[in-house]
Amino acid sequence: MENNNDVVEIYTDGACSGNPGPGGWAAVLLYKRTKKEISGFEENTTNNKMELKAALEALKALKRPCKVNLYSDSSYLINAFNQGWIEKWQKNNWLKSDKTPVENQDLWKELLEVLKKHQVNWIKVKGHADNEYNNLCDKLATDEIKKNTKKS
Question: Where, by residue number, does Mg(2+) 2 bind (predicted)?
Fold first, then answer.
């Protein structure tokens, strides 16, 4: 039986003020008794990019191959893996079913590279609900926007 102490729990969120507009991403990584918060900002971006960036940066922060439970309120991110979108996109040369290019290919491809090192279980959580760590990620991401867009 798998010991849950060997699993890293990661919560991620992205935020955007306007879409596109200034955006923030954040992640909370939990392992045993350690909690690490990371976040960042981009000047001109989209909400989907920030959701992807949060997951990407969280996984890149891991120092060795890990089993991960990654929680996100982003259907875009979670469904890409749990509903097989990513495999279809790759098979169709990064075209969606309507034959238009998949957005954010650079981030998806970078995420796929990072995923070669880890075993990730993608878990959808309800956004802006009662999930402590999802709410913390949302606050960290929106704080990045506020901190970086203050009028001087």
Answer: 13, 138
